[in-house]
Amino acid sequence: PAADVVKPLKLTEAEIRFYNSQGFLPxxxxxxxxxxxxxxxEVLDALDANGVSRAMLGKAASSADKLRQCMQYLAGSLLDxxxxxxxxxxxxxxxxxxxxxxxxxxxxVKTAGGGGAFDFHQDNNYTQHDPAVGSLNIWVALVDMTPxxxxxxxxxESHKSGQLTSRDSDDGDSHQKLDVDPAACFPVRxxxxxxxxxxxxxxxxxxxxxxxxxxxxxxxxxx
Length: 223
Hints:
Strand order of the largest sheet: 1-9-4-11-2
Radius of gyration: 16 Å
Distance between the termini: 24 Å
């Protein structure tokens, strides 16, 4: 059942106030522990089916090898249950302040052996939601996340500045970049199965993956 993959969670008023104030909210133990490994394998299988093999994730081709993204998943899979399940939608709805609808879920895998830093940006720099206040990302860790493997970096309260102007990344790829002082960011350390929710205006990025294992995560986006 869908509710088995994501733990049913009724957020407290204090948690929702924290999210609205800081622009993000840690969600420890978001995934039921027995499903973490299988979800991780489904993510790697989805990438493999789309031309990114596990071997390719073992060593970064260059510093511009930032993120392996894939939006496809199989109907009836654990990924499907995590993305569309009642427990996930209930949590997203509490944070959105209304009924949450799935927008754009995707794999967020950083290659081992130097997978590149991801520039600070807002999700709304890519596709603008207006208003953005009701849209969010629930970013799920499927391996332990540390600064060494490129954990998520968020800038607290940055969502209060609203929509910021971005520019093309210096790496010449399709990604966007904000000029943000890295000293202002907060590294979000997570265990596999934890998640962190943040708004589409929350400034975030990630460092390089200097470990010998890919950093496997999944981004659940709702509006």
